Design the sequence.
């Protein structure tokens, strides 16, 4: 039976999934201030809830320490816990609409969070640091514009990406700040291709609570794949998703039939890595191999027949 406590958590409604992660539920209805439209609402949650229940969208821009420092100094200069509260209009200086954060609510999420920051990851980091340093009241309330998008990391990744672009279209962002649709499509295609990935549930990690986004070699995290192709976008921008997959199969062939000694230095750990790669027939994340690591084979993604280390 579910129990809602004073903060609006649903205590016994946590969901344990096959990958071992637990999705922490929060009663969204109790946090909703106003329903703007069917899939868009204004919610208000406490600072501690914001940190514990809201994760960062893993395809977001990297955290810029200088930006975090600037925002933190802005808060400390005001020195008021109601600095975040746009609804508190007793003092014009306290009203800071810029601190309203945009989040996505995905009730189908299978990681540790169902809420993800789509715009405001630097503000989230400031709040986290302030809480850690005891410089902010954990019960102050943060306003968020919440967009409901189910399966925002899977079927609706493109929809979430378009939302990200729309929200950020008034900012001076570099093109490299935007996740590339092609990179997302390639990651999805890899996970579905049985020649490259025999069992995606065992090989491809997708725990969205893993902020580092790194899996144990030779397994791979979705974010590792995405980062690889996004960072090397210039190498794939003139290729179709189908061409990239075909080229990856050639690269895989060039790796999997090499002798162990040609791939790895002879260490116990590398022997285990090779055995696991052989077991799962997955060869795209041998990052401890000097010649066959992803940062090497990606150089040949447009001309795989030249990949002869």
Sequence:
């Amino acid at each position: 039976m579910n129990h809602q406590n004073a903060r609006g958590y649903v205590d016994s409604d946590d969901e344990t999934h096959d990958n071992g992660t637990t999705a922490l539920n929060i009663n969204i209805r109790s946090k909703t201030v106003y329903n703007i439209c069917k899939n868009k609402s204004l919610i208000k949650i406490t600072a501690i809830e914001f940190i514990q229940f809201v994760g960062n969208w893993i395809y977001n821009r990297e955290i810029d320490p200088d930006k975090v420092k600037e925002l933190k100094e802005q808060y400390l200069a005001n020195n008021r816990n109601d600095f975040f509260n746009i609804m508190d209009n007793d003092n014009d200086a306290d009203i800071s609409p810029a601190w309203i954060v945009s989040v996505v609510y995905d009730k189908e999420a299978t990681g540790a969070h169902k809420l993800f920051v789509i715009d405001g990851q630097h503000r989230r980091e400031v709040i986290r640091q302030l809480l850690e340093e005891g410089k902010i009241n954990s019960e102050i309330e943060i306003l968020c514009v919440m967009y409901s998008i189910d399966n925002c990391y899977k079927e609706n990744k493109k929809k979430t990406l378009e939302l990200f672009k729309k929200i950020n279209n008034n900012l001076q962002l570099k093109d490299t700040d935007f996740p590339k649709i092609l990179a997302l499509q390639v990651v999805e295609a890899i996970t579905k291709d049985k020649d490259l990935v025999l069992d995606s549930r065992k090989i491809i990690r997708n725990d969205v609570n893993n902020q580092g986004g790194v899996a144990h070699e030779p397994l791979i995290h979705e974010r590792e794949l995405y980062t690889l192709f996004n960072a090397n976008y210039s190498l794939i921008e003139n290729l179709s998703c189908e061409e990239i997959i075909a080229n990856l199969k050639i690269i895989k062939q060039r790796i999997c039939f090499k002798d162990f000694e040609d791939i790895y230095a002879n260490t116990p750990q590398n022997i285990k890595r090779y055995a696991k790669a052989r077991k799962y027939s997955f060869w795209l994340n041998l990052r401890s191999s000097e010649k066959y690591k992803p940062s090497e084979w990606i150089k040949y993604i447009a001309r795989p027949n030249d990949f002869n280390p």
Remarks:
- The chain has two domains: 15-174, 181-306.
